[in-house]
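In response to the reviewer comment on reproducibility (Comment 2.3), we provide here a single inverse folding case reported in full, input and output, so that an independent group could reproduce the run without further information from us. The structure tokens appear first.
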């Protein structure tokens, strides 16, 4: 049997640094758990632009379509701020999402006990927090036409279009209901049906799909109220289903509840491929963090937890994913901290590599 294939696109900024730690974890699974992967690497974002003049080369796109899963680090950085919009690093990421048709973006926000003090919210509000945001990722205002900047009456006008078909809303809703069935069977759908027709359609379609999942308790919330509820009483939520733009914003908000953006992974899933695995890309929720790039300060945990999601959702290795998550929980409980997780009491933070060392040691200890 051939090994499952992974394409690593480490990207820009801290992307390569945190991905180096993921590569060590991948090697560990091959050596110690008989779970070997065929790993290839390529460029995305600014790194691809520097070499090819585009943020994603067509050959890289073709490779991404052919592998079992893509692991992405981060894209973007100040060096690329002045590039034309069409070749900005983010366009590479958006092309991958769109052409792989990764419509269901799973963004878990879990608060590790050891980190409950780091949240900007009171500890009792976030201790034990475990939310899953399902963000629609291939449509909505990110991709809707018409779009652009043009001149009208001697004035510049900027246009983007929020557009959703019922099929797009429905397939994401099914992913969200399925997720709720595996968890606490509660789904809250968020839109702005009070001001947007696309929100009215969203609410209607989600309600229709609910008929197939009668065991799930469904609620609807305006997205602005959702943002408020997320910081007021986040533990009321189990699964949240929302659109591309609201999901972008609400997931940053949920991420911060957990103490650090450096902790949160994500999975972007599409339709099943011929081998039954979903099309998939895994990436940390954080960005390229140019302020700390190259200093070995970055927290690799979000990227490593993204690989854990790959084990679970692409490779049916839920037990091994849980092993990796438990190893991370253990090192945090033992006090391992990168700079983003340092409290006011101070201490010497671990480097990116030292955090990788600690997690590998905890994996060894789990055998
Ligand atoms: C995210 C990011 C991206 C998005 C950017 C980098 C294009 O913020 O994944 O949340 O807006 O989707
Ligand atoms: Mg975002």
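Designed residues, in position order:
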């Amino acid at each position: 049997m051939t090994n499952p294939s992974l394409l690593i696109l480490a990207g820009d900024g801290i992307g390569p640094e945190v991905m180096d730690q993921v590569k060590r974890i991948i090697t560990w699974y091959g050596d110690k758990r008989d779970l070997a992967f065929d790993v290839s690497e390529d460029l995305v974002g600014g790194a691809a632009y520097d070499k090819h003049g585009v943020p994603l080369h067509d050959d890289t796109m073709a490779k991404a379509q052919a592998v079992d899963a893509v692991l992405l680090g981060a894209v973007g950085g100040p060096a690329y701020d002045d590039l034309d919009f069409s070749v900005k690093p983010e366009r590479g990421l958006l092309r991958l999402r769109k052409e792989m048709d990764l419509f269901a973006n799973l963004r878990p926000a879990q608060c590790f006990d050891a980190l409950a003090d780091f949240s900007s919210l009171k500890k009792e509000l976030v201790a034990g927090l475990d939310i899953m945001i399902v963000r629609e990722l291939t449509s909505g205002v990110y991709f809707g036409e018409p779009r652009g900047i043009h001149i009208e009456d001697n004035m510049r006008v900027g246009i983007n279009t929020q557009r959703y078909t019922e099929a797009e809303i429905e397939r994401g809703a099914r992913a969200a209901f399925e997720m709720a069935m595996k968890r606490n069977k509660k789904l809250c759908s968020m839109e702005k049906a009070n001001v947007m027709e696309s929100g009215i359609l969203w609410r209607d379609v989600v309600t229709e799909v609910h008929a197939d999942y009668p065991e799930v308790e469904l609620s609807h919330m305006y997205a602005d109220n959702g943002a408020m509820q997320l910081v007021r009483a986040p533990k009321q939520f189990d699964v949240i289903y929302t659109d591309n733009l609201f999901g972008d914003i609400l997931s940053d908000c949920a991420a911060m509840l957990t103490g650090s953006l450096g902790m949160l992974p994500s999975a972007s899933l599409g339709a099943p491929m011929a081998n039954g695995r979903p099309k998939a890309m895994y990436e940390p929720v954080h960005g390229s963090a140019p302020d700390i790039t190259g200093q070995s300060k970055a927290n690799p945990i979000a990227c490593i937890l993204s690989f854990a999601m790959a084990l679970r959702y692409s490779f049916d290795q839920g037990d091994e994913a849980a092993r990796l998550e438990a190893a991370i929980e253990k090192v945090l409980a033992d006090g391992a901290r990168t700079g983003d997780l340092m409290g006011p009491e101070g201490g010497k933070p671990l480097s990116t590599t030292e955090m990788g060392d600690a997690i590998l040691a905890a994996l060894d200890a789990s055998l």
